[in-house]
Amino acid sequence: MENYLGELAERLQITVRTISEDLVVMAMPVAGNTQPAGLLHGGANGVLVEQAASSLALRRAPEGKLPVGTELNVSQLRGATEGYVTATATLLSQSRSSMCTQVEIRDESGTLTAVGR
Q1: Total-model pTM
Q2: Average pLDDT, the chain
């Protein structure tokens, strides 16, 4: 299964749970992760939004073309401090030159921690 993850995702132990043309689900451990606290508690949501949205864009790109230029808007609702955070990216709209994706980040209890587009 192609997952389009890079070095940062590997370092943060991000794993792909589901990937298809219309849906990407990724998870990342928060507790015990050795990355700087600011990256995990404030930035984990942003990292997951970027990884999930980029993976979905790559899956939806026309044959032989790579998407360029990602603009992210992440609303932090609360920090994640335990267990895993899970990102679910879904396609909202797509035209010939752009696409809009919504990414919801939830902690292990299912509480929404961030929303990104």
Answers
A1: 0.72
A2: 75
**Residues 5-17: pLDDT tens digits?**
677 777 778 888 8
- C-beta separation of 87 from 48 below 8 A: yes
Computed from CA positions of residues 41, 46, 49, 55, in that sequence, does the dihedral angle turn out positive or negative?
negative
Burial class (CB in 10 A: 0-12, 13-18, 19+), 109: exposed
Report the alpha-carbon distance of residue 73 to residue 112 in Å, rounded.
Answer: 16
Please, what's the b/e burial string for 58-96 (b: 16 or more CB within 10 A of its CB; e: otherwise)?
A: bbeeeeeeebeeeeeebebeebbeeebbbbbbebeeeee
Amino acid at 63: E
Handedness of CA 15, 17, 21, 23 (dihedral sign): negative
Q: 7-116: what CATH class?
A: alpha beta
CA 19 to chain CA centroid, nearest Å: 12
- For the chain, the structural domain boundaries read 7-116
